Amino acid sequence: MNKTGSATKVKLNSFDDLFGIEQPQSGIEQVQEIALTELQGFKEHPFKVLDD
User: At the top level of its lineage, which domain of life is listed (predicted)?
Assistant: First the structure.
């Protein structure tokens, strides 16, 4: 009986394979970092910051 471990059958993917390094395509949502000074509140916004 061959006693090779089951771990030899496991294929590990690289970080790039898992998360990709492709350039964003148009029409697809993206995460963007913007300065907090660029954010503006609007009337009837559902979230409020309370400074007690």
Answer: Bacteria
Q: d(Cα 46, Cα 30) in Å, to the nearest integer?
A: 23
Which stretches within 1-52 are classed as H helix? 15-19
Q: Are 30 and 24 in contact (CB under 8 A)?
A: yes
- Four-CA torsion 27, 31, 34, 38, nearest 10 degrees: 60
- % helix / strand / coil in the chain, to the nearest 5? 25, 0, 75
Tokens of 26: 């148009």
Averages of pLDDT over each 10 residues, the chain, 52 residues:
70 78 70 87 80 78
